Amino acid sequence: MGYFLRTLQLLSTCVAISLVGSLDSWTVPTSTWSFVILCFCFVVTFIILIIESLALHYCFPFSWGDFLLCHACYLALFCLLVSIIYPATYVQFLFYTPSWDHAIAATAGLLSCIMCVLYAIDMAYMWKHYKLKNIPCYVHTLPGLLKILESAVACVIFVFISNTSLYLHQPALEWCVAVYSICFVQVVVAMLLKLRGWEKRLPLRLPTFHRVGTWFSFLLYVIAMVLWPLYQFNEKLGGQPHWYRDMSCVDELTNYGCVWDQQLAVAILTAINLVIYMADLVYWTRQVSVGLRTSPVYFIPSTKQRWSSQNSIYC
């Protein structure tokens, strides 16, 4: 089942890359990012297929099952993003291109949707396997899923703020970018500590580390949630409150995308990530309130258990 899904993922990704690459849309940043995401999906999936075919996953010091679930979750979210952003961007800013190009863009968007479904099926299949076999898996828990969502939303924010004109003119907005980066690093470190089994190297317990890190990130996102809309959409602070006043949005010949839309997208994504951090914070606060002194049991299985469980997935 796993090999079959990997093959379908590679085929659909390869066709989508060919379609996107055939269109002259490189001057639009979101189109370029869509192409990069598709290439990333293809390369990662191809490497995983090769590793599994040669049984090289036995050599890795981390849980291969956790890695596969993370891979499927992230790529499903990224493909969903491409399926929404790429067709919308192409139709909006390259409206006067030939109708044949519009059909190609629509097909690429459809293939991105198919890729998203394939990665979601892969994730659901492994999820069901771990649940039925009662195999411990960090990503299979609520804290693990929340960490994936937090980092995935942060990655989407980074795509939009790659346009430095959104924030370089205002120190408060640069602070918001620093907030996104700091919180992203904190999430990645927390996930690596758990996935690699390094939590015992910390000077404090892992649940305490999670609580402190989540509180810190939550407070930083609250500040960003206030500063970003305030300095982007308040005219008194140099912002642009109305879409129709932004020349990048009303100019039909622009090739750089609507800056106001990008500012709004970052504000919405900041709010979404704030809600996710709030859910994460509620979880860890509840753990303390019910008197739990340790986090839920996520032990790293032994090498023999890990490889035997992974082999059973693809039988």
TrEMBL record:
MARVEL domain segment(s): 1-131, 138-289
Signal peptide: 1-16
Annotated compartments: Membrane
Regions crossing the membrane: 32-56, 68-91, 103-125, 137-160, 172-193, 214-231, 264-284
InterPro entries on file: Marvel, MYADM-like
Topology class, membrane: Multi-pass membrane protein
Listed GO CC annotations: cell-cell junction; plasma membrane
Protein keywords: Membrane, Repeat, Signal, Transmembrane, Transmembrane helix
UniProt record similarity statement: Belongs to the MAL family.
Protein's name in the database: MARVEL domain-containing protein
Organism encoding this protein: Bos indicus x Bos taurus (Hybrid cattle)
